[in-house]
């Protein structure tokens, strides 16, 4: 396959993980309007750009014999699975933190299995995004740009959520793992071309994950999130997507 490779998109997303948590003006309570806007942009992209692509790709998925019965009606089942997986991970982490507070445990988070479970899951998530990013390079520059912008903002939201859970452990180790996973996923795309149907399933899983990972950061009462900022981000990016 002849493929024109642009390395800048994966470099930009990797830099987000390197420096995202250093944007101190985004930290604190009430939640930064910029994080809420970023979350709105990511969700708008999934609903108005990614999911329509999944609808078009359903025909490819239905050609998979092993999936004929399981996914014959809608590929969105994979999006639901993605959402459910990340909801489950969030509950595990939250319950572990509650247990530590209740027992007065002072054990550093990075010594606990829950840290690696959380980071390992996001590493897989990042690797899938890296693969999709490479695949986007086969299409138009416009599609590549729209995906890259949405994921860059989504990574900033994820960075602050993971740092809140794991503190120094995330800054010292977690972000490096996520950067490596992102680049590895992109590299796999360079050497391995998956069937189109599997790429559609990967996109569906990521789409569900994006929705869950954004909403879990916006909804907790203690975050004091600003709905208007989330709606503004979603509305502006939706307007852009619909005008293209």
From TrEMBL:
<feature type="transmembrane region" description="Helical">
    <location>
        <begin position="114"/>
        <end position="134"/>
    </location>
</feature>
<feature type="transmembrane region" description="Helical">
    <location>
        <begin position="6"/>
        <end position="25"/>
    </location>
</feature>
<dbReference type="GO" id="GO:0016020">
    <property type="term" value="C:membrane"/>
</dbReference>
<feature type="transmembrane region" description="Helical">
    <location>
        <begin position="227"/>
        <end position="243"/>
    </location>
</feature>
<feature type="transmembrane region" description="Helical">
    <location>
        <begin position="71"/>
        <end position="93"/>
    </location>
</feature>
<keyword id="KW-0812">Transmembrane</keyword>
<feature type="transmembrane region" description="Helical">
    <location>
        <begin position="198"/>
        <end position="215"/>
    </location>
</feature>
<keyword id="KW-1133">Transmembrane helix</keyword>
<dbReference type="GO" id="GO:0005385">
    <property type="term" value="F:zinc ion transmembrane transporter activity"/>
</dbReference>
<keyword id="KW-0472">Membrane</keyword>
<protein>
    <recommendedName>
        <fullName>ZIP Zinc transporter</fullName>
    </recommendedName>
</protein>
<feature type="transmembrane region" description="Helical">
    <location>
        <begin position="173"/>
        <end position="192"/>
    </location>
</feature>
<feature type="transmembrane region" description="Helical">
    <location>
        <begin position="140"/>
        <end position="161"/>
    </location>
</feature>
<feature type="transmembrane region" description="Helical">
    <location>
        <begin position="32"/>
        <end position="51"/>
    </location>
</feature>
